[in-house]
Amino acid sequence: MKLLVRNLSRSTTEQELRILFSAHGTVAECSLVLDQATAKSKGFAFVEMPNEAEAKVALSSLHETRVAKNKIRVKIAQ
After folding, report:
1. Per the database entry, which stretches of residues form a coiled coil (predicted)?
2. 4 Cβ contact partners less than 8 Å away, ≥ 6 residues apart
C-alpha cells in the first residue's frame, strides 16, 4: 500500500521517515519529493508498505502526530 505523507518539516530526511514507518512494519520504499531547482524537500513524501495491515496501522498511528514540530498528515496515495 502506498501512503502519502504531507506537512513534513523541510529538514525531515528519507531515513527519518523510514525509521518512523518501520516501527509499524516493513517499508519497501520511501521517497521524499524534492524541488528540482533547489534539491530541498517540498514537504511531502511517499512511503510504500507491502503489507496492507501494517500500512493501515502506520496510517492510523502516525496521522496527525508531530514530527520535527510539524503535525504530519498520512493518507492512502491515489
Report:
1. none
2. 44, 45, 46, 74, 75, 76, 77, 78
